[in-house]
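Here is my example:
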Amino acid sequence: MRTMGLDVGTKTVGIALSDELGWTAQGLETLKINEEENEFGFDQLGKIIKEHQVSKVVVGLPKNMNGTIGPRGEACQRFAKEIENLFGLPVILWDERLTTMAAERVLLEADVSRKKRKKVIDKMAAVMILQGYLNSQI
């Protein structure tokens, strides 16, 4: 069984999956959503969960630097709760402070163009969220 990692934004959700042993995270895709119109891509997530036999989901929780939860964090908590309700899977909220910045730095160091970075940054952040969680389980 695999673990899925999600980096939830207002317009996209970065998706990563673990290997079957739960050691490594790989980026899968970036799902377009529209938070303003309540389009969250749950149908597509359900297909991925079924296809890859996902047994657990890790959702990045963007906390403020002082550890408090702001509006973005609250939106991620609602998203996580909806996944639990729809798919009956355990959902772990994982502190994702600075993961998008770290992903950006990795892509810059790899000399990825701005246009390409924009396409993969959320997927890369999902990988970092999931890998952080997997590392904590060892």
